[in-house]
Design goal:
The complex is a heterodimer of chains A (about 450) and B (about 300). By secondary structure, chain A is an alpha+beta fold. In chain A, strands 7, 8, 9, 11, 12, 13, 15 and 16 form an eight-stranded antiparallel sheet that branches. Chain B is an alpha/beta fold. Chain B has two domains: about 190 residues, Rossmann fold (3-Layer(aba) Sandwich); about 80 residues, no CATH class. In chain B, the strands form two sheets. In chain B, strands 3-2-1-4-6-5 form a six-stranded mixed sheet, sandwiched between helices. In chain B, helix 2 links the parallel strand 1 and strand 2. In chain B, helix 1 crosses helix 2 and helix 6 packs antiparallel against helix 7. Classes of the chains: A alpha+beta (about 450), B alpha/beta (about 300). Chain A: It is an enzyme of class 2 (transferase). Chain A: It comes from Streptomyces macrolidinus. Chain A: This is sulfate adenylyltransferase. Chain A: Keywords: ATP-binding, GTP-binding, Nucleotide-binding, Nucleotidyltransferase, Transferase.
C-alpha cells in the first residue's frame, strides 16, 4: 500500500482509527432540535455541497435569507402530504475522533414510540430545552424515557441561551432542576451544556460569550464520552442465530454456533451451559469471522466451537455454567406499546427474545404510567400506541431472561401480532426506573410504586 | 484472512470499544445470519457495485467455512459496463455461487416495458425485479442500500416489509428496537434487508481497503472516452450516447457508483489506489449520488417515488 503526501490523505488516515457512538436526540422543533442537528452536521463538515445547495434553494423559495439548517433533516414527501410521521431518521457524520450514528426523533407527546426506538440502541441521548422555558412536561417525559431505556449518558442541552442574554444563573437553575429529576429516575449520568444552536455557541465551537462555562461543547462531549460495554458488568450471553455445518471433504465434522455476543466475554476452555436444554460442555474454539481467537466480547459476531456433540439449534442461548440465568414462564416487564392496535389483557402474542420466538399470553396489565408526572394508573385494561405500562406475560416455554437493568440486550424483547406480524410492544424485563440504590424517600416511592 | 489494521483510538475510549469498522461488520453479519435463520429463500441483490461486493464479502465471512446459503440476483438493465459483467461472472465462479438474472432487455424485447425517451433504464428495473422475486419465491432480498445515500433512505428500516407487488408502505414499516428484527410477512410478501444501513460511503471504502476486497477496475482512475450530459461524464456506448451535439473526449476519470451506463456518471479523478480513492472521498464536497446519478436528479422526491413502487 502506498502513501501519498497530499493533505486529504492525512485526514483519511485520521478517519481510519476511530470508534462509533450511537446517540439519539429528543426535543421538538420549538426547542431548536433540527437547528442543533443541522449545525452538528454542518459545522462538522458532514453536509456536502449538493445537500447544502438543496437546502439553500428550499430556504430561498420559502423567502428565508440564509440556509435554514433545520431543512437538512426535513422529512419525506409522504410525511408532509399525509401528515404522518415515519418516525426515526438516521444521520451519519464523522470527525477525526469518532464516527456518529444519530437517531433523530421527533419530540412531541405522541411520538413516545419513536423516542423509545431511537433510545433502544443509543449509548447517549441529547435532551433539548428552551432556556426561556426551562424544564417542562416534555423534558420530564424525555428524561423518563432515557431512564426507562437505561441510556448510559444523558446530555441536557439548554438551548437559546442568546435569548436569555447568556446568563449563567438561568442555565444553572435549569441544569440543577433537571439533574435532580433525572437522578431520581435512575439516569446514570447527566451532562448539562448551555448552547445556542442558532448562533453556534458551544455546539461545535466554544462560546465566545459564555466564558463562565468551562465544560465541553456538545461535539467535544460526543467525541470523548466513553463508549463500549465493560464486559465485567454483565455475564456472557450468546443467542444462537445459526448452526454452521459445511459437511464438506475439507470440513467433514465442523459444527459451529454462530451469533453476536449479547453480553460479556467468552473464553476458550470455559464451561458453558446451553439453554433451554441445560446441557453442559466446554468452549473448544472461538472463530472471529475467520480468525481463531482466545476470547471474544460483546458485540462481536462470532462462531463458538464446543467440545461435546450436543443438540443445539437457533433460539438456544449459550451462557457460562457459573452464571446461567434462570428460565421463567412468567415475565413482569415495563413496556412501551408501539402499534396502532391496542394491547389488551388476554391478547395472544408472539414474544421475540434474542433469537427465540415463543407464544405468550398477556395475563395482566397492572398499570399504565403517565410520563408527564409519572403517576401510575392502575388496571387500564389495555395499552394504546405510545403508552408506557407494566405488563405480566405467561410464555408457552420457559425463557432465560435477564433483568433489563442488568443487560439491555438480553433483558429486552418485542411482542408481535401472530395474525399480521405487526411489532406491537417493546418490553424490558423487571423493574423499570430502578435507581442504582433503592429509593428511600417515601414521597418519591409513592410516585414509583405500581 | 487479513488481520484488522484498524484499532480503537487510545484515550477516552474504554478498551472494550470496537473500532467503527469492527462494529459495523459485526452488525452486518448479525443481520445476515438473522435472515438465514428466519427466512426460507433469501437472495442477495448483486450488481457488481462496491456495496453489493462488500455485502457478499460479509456473507462469505458470516457463514465460513460453509458456503453462502443463498444465491445472487442481478437486475440487468442491458446497459452494463463490460468490466462489471466480467467481474460479476468471475466472482460467481470463484465462490461457486448461483446467479439469477432479471433482464430489462427481455422485457423491452417482449414489449412489456418501453424504452424511456431519455434512454434511462434505472426506473425500468422495478418490474423485472418484482416478477423475479415472485417467480422464484424469494422471501428476503438483501440490498446494499445505505441510509446515508439519500434523504428517502434515512428512515428506511433494516428489515423493510414489501407487499406482493414489492411496494413499500410507510404505515406498515415496523419500529426496530434493540437488535430484535421482526421478519414476519404474509405469503407472497417479502422483506428487503439492508445489512449496510448504518455504513457511509467512506466506511465502505475503508472496509474494502482493510479487507483487501477486489473491485471492478472502473472504480479507479483510468482513461476513457466520455461526453458531457447534465453536468456528468457519461461513457459512449451502444446504449444511445452521445447525441449529435455531444462531443466525445478522452479524460482521466473513475466511477464512484456503478449502475446503468446511461445515467451513471464518472468523476474526474487521478486516484488509482484505494488510499487515493479514500483520500478523494474524504475531501469530496459532493455526495456520491449527487455527483454521479442522473436518475436521482429527476425530482426532489425521485428516490422516494421509486422506492414506494418497489425499487431497491
Amino acid at each position: 500500500m502506498t502513501t501519498t503526501t497530499t493533505t486529504p490523505t492525512t485526514r483519511a488516515a485520521d478517519l481510519s482509527a476511530t470508534t462509533l457512538l450511537r446517540f439519539a436526540t429528543a426535543g421538538s422543533v420549538d426547542d431548536g432540535k433540527s437547528t442543533l442537528v443541522g449545525r452538528l452536521l454542518h459545522d462538522s463538515k458532514s453536509v456536502l455541497a449538493d445537500q447544502l445547495e438543496a437546502v439553500e434553494r428550499a430556504s430561498a423559495s420559502r423567502g428565508q435569507d440564509g440556509p435554514d439548517l433545520a431543512l437538512l433533516t426535513d422529512g419525506l414527501r409522504a410525511e408532509r402530504e399525509q401528515g404522518i410521521t415515519i418516525d426515526v431518521a438516521y444521520r451519519y457524520f464523522a470527525t477525526p475522533r469518532r464516527r456518529f450514528i444519530l437517531a433523530d426523533t421527533p419530540g412531541h407527546v405522541q411520538y413516545t414510540r419513536n423516542m423509545v426506538t431511537g433510545a433502544s440502541t443509543a449509548e447517549l441521548t441529547v435532551i433539548l430545552v428552551d432556556a426561556r422555558h426551562g424544564v417542562v412536561e416534555q423534558t420530564r417525559r424525555h428524561a423518563a424515557i432515557a431512564a426507562l431505556l437505561r441510556v448510559p449518558h444523558v446530555v441536557l442541552a439548554v438551548n437559546k441561551m442568546d435569548l436569555v442574554d447568556y446568563r449563567e444563573p438561568v442555565f444553572a437553575a435549569i441544569a440543577e432542576e433537571f439533574t435532580a429529576y433525572a437522578t431520581e429516575l435512575g439516569v446514570l449520568e447527566v451532562t448539562a451544556i448551555p448552547i445556542s444552536a442558532l448562533a453556534g455557541d458551544n455546539v461545535v465551537e466554544p462560546s465566545a460569550t459564555m466564558d463562565w462555562y468551562g465544560g465541553p461543547t456538545v461535539l467535544e462531549h460526543l467525541e470523548t464520552v466513553p463508549v463500549g460495554h465493560d464486559p465485567a458488568h454483565g455475564h456472557a450471553r450468546l443467542p444462537v442465530q445459526y448452526v454452521i455445518r459445511p459437511q464438506t471433504a475439507e470440513h467433514p465434522d465442523y459444527r459451529g454456533y454462530a451469533g453476536q455476543i449479547a453480553a460479556g466475554v467468552f473464553r476458550v476452555g470455559e464451561r458453558v451451559t446451553v439453554l433451554p436444554s441445560g446441557h453442559t460442555t466446554t468452549i473448544s474454539g472461538i472463530d472471529l469471522l475467520g480468525r481463531p481467537v482466545e476470547a471474544a466480547r460483546t458485540p462481536q459476531s462470532v462462531t463458538l466451537l464446543l467440545a461435546d456433540d450436543i443438540d443445539i439449534s437457533r433460539g438456544d442461548l449459550i451462557v457460562p455454567t457459573e452464571h446461567a440465568p434462570s428460565a421463567t414462564q412468567d415475565i413482569d416487564a415495563t413496556v412501551c406499546h408501539v402499534a396502532d392496535q391496542p394491547l389488551t389483557v388476554g391478547h395472544r402474542v408472539l414474544l421475540k427474545h434474542g433469537t427465540r420466538t415463543v407464544k405468550a399470553l398477556v395475563q395482566d396489565i397492572p398499570s399504565r404510567l403517565t410520563l408527564d408526572d409519572l403517576s401510575p394508573h392502575p388496571r387500564p385494561g389495555q395499552l394504546v400506541a405510545n403508552d408506557i405500562g407494566r405488563v405480566t406475560l405467561r410464555t408457552a416455554e420457559p425463557l432465560p431472561v435477564d433483568a433489563y437493568a442488568d443487560s439491555r440486550r438480553t433483558g429486552s424483547f418485542i411482542l408481535i401480532d401472530p395474525a399480521d406480524g405487526t411489532t406491537l410492544t417493546a418490553g424490558m424485563v423487571g423493574e423499570s426506573f430502578a435507581a442504582p440504590e433503592p429509593v428511600t424517600d417515601p414521597a418519591a416511592e409513592d410516585g414509583w410504586d405500581f | 484472512m487479513t488481520p484488522p489494521v484498524v484499532t480503537a483510538r487510545e484515550g477516552t475510549d474504554t478498551p472494550y470499544a470496537l473500532s467503527h469498522l469492527d462494529a459495523l461488520e459485526s452488525e452486518a453479519v448479525h443481520i445476515l445470519r438473522e435472515v438465514v435463520g428466519e427466512f426460507e429463500r433469501p437472495v442477495i441483490l448483486f450488481s457488481g457495485g462496491k456495496d453489493s461486493i462488500v455485502m457478499l464479502h460479509l456473507a462469505l465471512k458470516a457463514f465460513a467455512p460453509a458456503a453462502v446459503p443463498f444465491s445472487l440476483l442481478h437486475v440487468d438493465t442491458g446497459h452494463n459496463f463490460p468490466e462489471v459483467l466480467e467481474f460479476r461472472d468471475r466472482v460467481v465462479a470463484a465462490h461457486g455461487l448461483r446467479l439469477h438474472v432479471a433482464s430489462v432487455q427481455d422485457y423491452i424485447d417482449r414489449g412489456v416495458l418501453r424504452e424511456r425517451p431519455d434512454g434511462t433504464r434505472n426506473p425500468l428495473q422495478t418490474l423485472p425485479l418484482t416478477e423475479k422475486i415472485r417467480s422464484e419465491r424469494f422471501d428476503a432480498v438483501f440490498g446494499g442500500g445505505r441510509r446515508d445515500e439519500e434523504k428517502a433512505r434515512a428512515k428506511e428500516r433494516v428489515f423493510s416489509l414489501r407487499d406482493a407487488f414489492s411496494q413499500w408502505d410507510p404505515r406498515r414499516q415496523r419500529p426496530e428496537l434493540w437488535q430484535l428484527y421482526n421478519g414476519r410477512h404474509a405469503p407472497g410478501e417479502h422483506v428487503r434487508v439492508f445489512p449496510l444501513s448504518n455504513w457511509t460511503e467512506l466506511d465502505v471504502w475503508q472496509y474494502i481497503a482493510r479487507e483487501g476486497i477486489e473491485l471492478p477496475e472502473i472504480y479507479f482512475a483510468h482513461e476513457r472516452e466520455v461526453f458531457q450530459r447534465s453536468g456528468m461524464w457519461l461513457t459512449a456506448g451502444a446504449w444511445g450516447g452521445p447525441e449529435e451535439d455531444e462531443r466525445v473526449e478522452r479524460r482521466l476519470v473513475r466511477y464512484r457508483t456503478v449502475g446503468d451506463m446511461s445515467c451513471t456518471g464518472a468523476v474526474d479523478s487521478d486516484a488509482v489506489t484505494l488510499e487515493q480513492v479514500i483520500a478523494e472521498i474524504a475531501a469530496s464536497r459532493l455526495t456520491e449520488r449527487g455527483a454521479t446519478r442522473a436518475d436521482d436528479k429527476l425530482s426532489e422526491a425521485a428516490m422516494e417515488d421509486r422506492k414506494r413502487e418497489g425499487y431497491f
